[in-house]
Specification:
Number of helices: 12
Strand content: 15-25%
Order of helices and strands: EHHEHEHEHEHEHEEHHHEEHEEEH
CATH architecture of the largest domain: 3-Layer(aba) Sandwich
Structural class: alpha/beta
Number of domains: 2
Largest sheet: 7 strands, mixed
Radius of gyration: 20 Å
Strand order of the largest sheet: 2-8-7-6-5-3-4
CATH class of the largest domain: Alpha Beta
Number of strands: 13
Shape: globular
Length: 362
C-alpha cells in the first residue's frame, strides 16, 4: 500500500450502513427504513429554522447557549452538565475517545446500536457483546462481560434495532453492579416513545447524583429534526468536562439550534407524534402477528418482525416501493425492522404484507 497508512484496526471497521433511502426507478419510495418521524416536525421549529436563514454566514454559538438553557429548564437539569453533538452518535464518539484506548474494552448487549461499535473500534479498544436472550438486554449477561479492562458500558432503553426495553429497576441494578471506574452510557434516542410505560424512566433525574452515568438524547426521532443532527447528553461535571475537551466547537448549527429550541417548546406536536406511533405500532404489530409472524414487543416508533425469508420479504416490499430495514448486518438475518409511518403508510404496508410468505417458527 502506498500513501498514508491508517492506524491499526481502522480498516477492520465495518462502516455504518444506514437504512436505504433510494430505490431504482422510483422517485419517492415510501421510506420506512430509518425510524424518522413521518409527520415531519413542529411548525414552530420549521419557522424558526427558516427565520435563521439570514444568519448562514455566522458561526454557531460554540456553547449552544439557547438550547442549553431550554433543555435545562424543561428537564430541570444543571446547564453546565450538558454536552452537545451532531446527533447522539457524535456524543457516543466523544465518550469512546475520552475513556477508551488500546487494551481497553466496552460492553454492549448483543444487538447493540451499530454506531457504538464503530466509536469504540476507532479508539483502538474492543467491543464485547453480551448475550441478549430473546432479544432483550440482560443485566446479568452484561455484568458478566465486564472485566478489569472494561471502561464503558452502552445500553439503549428502549433499544434499536429490537424495540425492546427494560424496566428502570434493571438499569439501576446494572449501574449498581458496575465498578465506579466504568462509564454507563444510557442511550435514550427513543425515550419519548416510552414515557408513560409502567416502570420506565428516561434516567435523567436518577442520574443527577451519579458520577459514572451519561444519559444521551436526540432531536432526530420524536421531534422530527433528523436532518439537523442535534444530540445532547447529561452527565456528571467530571464526565462532561472530559467530553467538552474533545468536542468540536461548532457541531450544532445556528439554524439547527433555533429549530431545536422551538421544537422543545411544542409539547403538543411530540404528544401527537408519540400517540400516532403507539396507534400505528399496535396496528402493524397485529397485522404481522395475524400473518403468523413473530414480532418483538416495542416501545419505539418501529416494529421488528421475523420472516421465513427476510431477504425475499424485503424485496417484496421494495417491489411495491416500500423501503424497510433488513437486519442482517445486526446478526438478525431473519428479521425486518419496519418504521411506523402515517395511517395511510401503514395501510400500504399491511396490504403488501398479504403477499409475503408466513414466518418460520421462532
Amino acid at each position: 500500500m502506498t500513501g498514508p497508512i491508517p492506524k491499526p484496526g481502522i480498516l477492520d471497521i465495518a462502516a455504518y450502513v444506514p437504512g436505504r433511502a433510494k430505490l431504482a426507478g422510483v422517485e419517492r419510495p415510501l421510506k420506512l427504513s430509518a425510524n424518522e418521524n413521518p409527520f415531519g416536525c413542529s411548525e414552530a421549529a420549521r419557522a424558526a429554522f427558516l427565520a435563521a436563514a439570514s444568519e448562514l454566514h455566522l458561526y454557531p454559538d460554540a456553547n449552544t447557549s439557547r438550547l442549553r438553557g431550554a433543555i435545562a429548564e424543561k428537564f430541570k437539569l444543571e446547564p453546565e452538565r450538558l454536552v452537545f453533538g451532531a446527533g447522539s452518535d457524535e456524543v457516543f464518539a466523544f465518550a469512546a475517545q475520552a475513556y477508551l484506548g488500546p487494551g481497553d474494552n466496552a460492553v454492549q448487549p448483543q444487538y447493540g446500536f451499530a454506531a457504538w461499535a464503530i466509536a469504540v473500534a476507532a479508539t483502538g479498544a474492543r467491543m464485547k457483546s453480551a448475550p441478549e436472550p430473546d432479544f432483550v438486554a440482560d443485566v446479568d449477561e452484561i455484568l458478566a462481560a465486564v472485566d478489569e479492562s472494561t471502561r464503558v458500558v452502552f445500553v439503549a432503553n428502549p433499544a434499536n434495532p429490537t424495540g425492546t426495553w427494560l424496566p428502570f429497576s434493571e438499569i439501576e441494578r446494572l449501574h449498581a453492579g458496575l465498578p465506579a471506574c466504568v462509564l454507563l452510557v444510557l442511550d435514550g434516542a427513543y425515550a419519548e416513545c416510552a414515557i408513560g410505560i409502567e416502570g420506565f424512566s428516561d434516567g435523567l433525574d436518577w442520574s443527577r447524583d451519579k458520577q459514572n452515568v451519561l444519559v444521551t438524547r436526540t432531536f432526530s426521532k420524536a421531534y422530527g429534526l433528523a436532518s439537523l443532527r442535534i444530540g445532547w447528553a447529561y452527565g456528571s461535571s467530571s464526565v462532561v468536562s472530559a467530553l467538552d475537551r474533545i468536542r468540536l466547537p461548532f457541531s450544532v448549527p445556528r439554524a439547527g439550534e433555533a429549530a431545536a429550541v422551538a421544537a422543545l417548546g411544542d409539547d403538543a406536536f411530540v404528544r401527537r407524534s408519540v400517540a400516532a406511533f403507539d396507534q400505528g405500532r399496535r396496528e402493524l404489530d397485529a397485522a404481522l402477528r395475524d400473518k403468523g409472524l413473530r414480532t418483538l414487543p416495542s416501545a419505539t416508533n418501529f416494529v421488528t418482525a421475523c420472516f421465513d425469508d427476510a431477504k425475499a420479504a424485503d424485496a417484496t416490499f421494495a417491489q411495491h416501493s416500500i423501503l424497510v430495514r433488513h437486519l442482517a448486518n445486526y446478526g438478525m438475518p431473519d428479521w425486518l425492522r419496519i418504521s411506523i409511518g402515517t395511517p395511510d403508510d401503514i395501510k400500504r404496508v399491511i396490504a403488501v404484507l398479504q403477499q409475503v410468505d408466513p414466518a418460520k417458527a421462532p
